[in-house]
């Protein structure tokens, strides 16, 4: 079987590797190199996701296991362990975190309540004097150094014979799904095509007369915009994911930090300048991690997430018997490793047991 995978983010890169390992001849095409994708700039926190969907919960748990498998095969250095610390600064926030923790315990997902002293044993540099209630610790949460992950997985794929054609945009998919046409005009034939191009999937499928149901940018129904900020290297950072009030932090490669402020993302809907918002994000850092007070903005990326209209991932063939498959999700890095396995299962005739609730066909 010859397969063309489109997109060089976490999903596309992992899918290309897994398909090759399953025996397929793989041509991996993308408009950009892996390090230039949205995945490379993601906050990249992976955890059990409790959003009221049992199917999504089990998929997220399997994703954690799949990430560990993928890291063990490629380079364990890209998978960051150590869990996640989370606390509130006001009674309303504490009530929300307590409710969430209760839900996770009901699902048997590990969560511990720490005193300030216990939390500081894990992360001595944090400022916790504003904490209201306990600091909650989720030991099974992980994060990904996605730049290192993309390098390692792409390198492993190349070593197995995947043909990588980065910097070559796809202009369209053959009407029968048996290949793609590149922007250069070249036609690359295949037995199957897998679309892992983020929001770019919508345009590719539109050429086949298929509507991919994604929320429009700025939709009031769910946050679609995201701003991720990478700092300059700091002398003393953090070793795990930290969710402080109004600022999320994780370690980044090269001694830097990756930062995210959920509340500031909403301002992108209103046309706020991303560069100015990036400076605001970094300005919050000394209040949480005083030792990083000298950090500056090294880079930032403002992007629109590919959010399906029902908030649930889409994966699998675009129609029964079609040679074209699609993966569309706003949890691309979080779920990448397991979604790659789902795609492979579909193409080799062994559908993944967790895939049923995530098919495009659910939209009718």
Automatic annotation (TrEMBL):
GO terms for molecular function: oxidoreductase activity. The keyword Protease does not apply. It comes from the Bacteria. Residues 3-343 form the FAD dependent oxidoreductase domain. The keyword GTP-binding does not apply. GO terms for cellular component: cytoplasm. Keywords: Oxidoreductase. Pfam families: DAO. This is FAD dependent oxidoreductase domain-containing protein.
């Amino acid at each position: 079987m010859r397969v063309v995978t489109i997109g060089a983010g976490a999903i596309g890169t992992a899918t290309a590797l897994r398909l090759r390992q399953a025996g397929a001849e793989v041509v991996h095409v993308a408009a950009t190199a892996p390090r230039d994708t949205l995945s490379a700039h993601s906050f990249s926190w992976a955890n059990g996701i409790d959003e009221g969907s049992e199917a999504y919960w089990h998929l997220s748990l399997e994703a954690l296991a799949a990430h560990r498998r993928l890291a063990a095969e490629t380079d364990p250095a890209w998978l960051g362990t150590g869990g996640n610390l989370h606390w509130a600064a006001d009674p309303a926030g504490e009530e929300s975190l307590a409710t969430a923790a209760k839900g996770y315990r009901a699902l048997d997902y590990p969560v511990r309540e720490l005193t300030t002293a216990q939390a500081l044993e894990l992360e001595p540099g944090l400022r916790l004097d504003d904490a209201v209630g306990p600091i909650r610790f989720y030991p099974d949460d992980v994060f990904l150094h996605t730049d290192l992950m993309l390098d390692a997985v792409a390198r492993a794929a190349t070593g197995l014979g995947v043909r990588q054609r980065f910097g070559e945009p796809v202009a369209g998919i053959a009407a029968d799904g048996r290949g793609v046409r590149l922007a250069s005009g070249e036609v690359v034939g295949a037995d199957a095509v897998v679309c892992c191009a983020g929001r770019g999937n919508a345009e590719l499928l539109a050429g086949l007369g298929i509507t991919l149901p994604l929320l429009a940018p700025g939709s009031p129904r769910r946050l679609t915009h995201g701003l991720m900020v990478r700092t300059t290297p700091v002398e003393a950072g953090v070793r795990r994911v930290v969710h402080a009030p109004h600022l999320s932090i994780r370690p980044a490669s090269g001694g830097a930090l990756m930062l995210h402020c959920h509340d500031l993302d909403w301002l992108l809907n209103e046309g706020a300048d991303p560069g100015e918002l990036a400076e605001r994000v970094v300005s919050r850092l000394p209040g949480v991690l005083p030792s990083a007070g000298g950090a500056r903005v090294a880079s930032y990326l403002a992007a629109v997430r590919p959010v399906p209209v029902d908030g649930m991932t889409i994966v699998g063939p675009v129609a029964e018997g079609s040679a074209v498959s699609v993966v569309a999700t706003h949890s691309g890095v979080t779920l990448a490793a397991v979604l790659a396995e789902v795609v492979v299962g579909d193409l080799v005739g062994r559908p993944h047991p967790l895939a049923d609730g995530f098919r495009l066909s659910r939209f009718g």
